[in-house]
Amino acid sequence: MHGFSNSGNKDTRSGFGAGLSELGKTNPNVVALCADLTGSLKMNAFAKDHPERFFQVGIAEANMMGIAAGLTIGGKIPFTGTFANFSTGRVYDQIRQSIAYSGKNVKICASHAGLTLGEDGATHQILEDLGLMRMLPGMTVINPCDFNQTKAATLAIANHEGPVYLRFGRPKVANFTPEDQNFEIGKALHLKSGSDVSIFATGHMVWEAIQAIDILAEQGIDAEVINIHTIKPLDEAAILQSVAKTGAVVTAEEHNRFGGLGDAVAQCLATHHPAPQEYVAVNDSFGESGKPAELLEKYGLDAKHIALAAKRVVQKKQ
Amino acid sequence: MTKTEELTALSSQVRRDIVRMVHAVQSGHPGGSLGCTEYFVALFGEIMNHNPHNFTMDGKGEDLFFLSNGHISPVYYSVLSRSGCFPLEELKTFRKINSRLQGHPTTHEGLPGIRIASGSLGQGMSVALGAALTKKLNKEDSLVFSLHGDGELQEGQIWEAAMFASAKKVDNLISTIDLNGQQIDGATDNVLPMGSIRDKFEAFGWLVIEETDGNNLPAVINVLEKAKASTGQGKPVMVLLHTEMGAGVDFMEGTHEWHGIAPSDEQLEMALAQLEETLGDY
Q1: B279 lies in some domain
Q2: Can you spell out the DSSP letters for B131-177?
Q3: Global pTM?
């Protein structure tokens, strides 16, 4: 048994809402903006408790990003809230020029990322956002795995000077990391030691990777699992240390195989320690409507597929 | 010299800076820069309460300015430098490698006076709104100014910002549109006719003031004073400033042709012959 216990399913977006609400009470410089999705982003508590620091901008995401950039001038720490698609692709140039290139201390908080948004379908299921944000110089990119970690990450980014992309999701998923954990940006979390293969997972895929531990154990494969909650800056030391031991890599992300965690890890390996790698990611396609679990299965992103990928990559070891 | 005479002399020198900077590197945007000279000189020399010798990004207690149409960086750099933000001789580095004076303004190289990167159009009004909201949150009565091109109004984000500004009563913001009627591909009325810009901003809930003589320094000072007096009344303030592209250099005037090209050696001499060197070239 992997030994991780789920304290009850919760959505990561509620972790964000809880973190933001706490920041409202503890940090008077934190302000929040939302583009007509206050309920979906769980920003209601902050909006209700701090109406003077909450800006409803309507369905105008480009304007929201610009206003957030301006709010930093004079010391505010703006948190923008909308879906991942409208937080990145729709406003890429605004983020690029007014936030990233201008070095503004804006926290871009994005819910409903990836396939697990579910029934709304591909228009809303962005699978390219990690890549888009990773490519921006100076942007920190974070994809926490559960409610507790998303709350902790929300608190942590308020104390980080510089632009941050914080990605989380819609469905209720296992909540298994400690309550009131300290979130260290850029520090990978070692979840389980193993000798045969390193599984590097991010976001919702971390719990799937944990489920894969037992499937692999039955096949005699001892998997190491590491939670890469920060995709940029990548914890290269943790990755290389693990790969030096196992010699084989699986990356797991709720994202297109291009541009996300898998590519970040592959770049690290190619540069420092070449090793066979299997991607568990969406295979260069758009998503579709369906239940989150159905989608993860159909697009090859569940525990079963992680185990299959691990088995394949172990066989590639010389 | 009276203050107006001083600023008139500064305007001539700023125009010399603009054509010399663009000539030196054989690139840049002289037309809009020349047309906005009086606006910049009035704003930085008379209207704004600011502290150019001790620049801070946060600008607490100061009026702030945001240039949205970043391509008119030559006039911006000249006026910032001659206001005391950075040494005059740095104007020599405009658009050259390792310079703080990038083709379009940026905070990235740490040039005093710049608080946001601009160049990709349509973003500056949103940024100015954010800065104005922070002024309000910080209980400051300082003002925020922004400048936009008229062609830039074709960007949708401007209208998102315009809608927000009045809905949220951001009445410490004074935006100005440089109405020169020109954009890269020709007259705005030919490229994409926008109808009455005044009617549009009034319909969006702004208090609109218009000045038809935007290259007349006393008139520009006057309209900006009027705009200042109109703040704090629950509405964002819009100054529609009619200017002439290329103003002050006869062969550049009134045409989009000089939007983004540099004068030759001979054209530079012709231009400088029309512009008195009042404060010393950089």
Answers
A1: no
A2: HHHHHHHTT----EEEEEESGGGGSHHHHHHHHHHHHTT-TTEEEEE
A3: 0.97
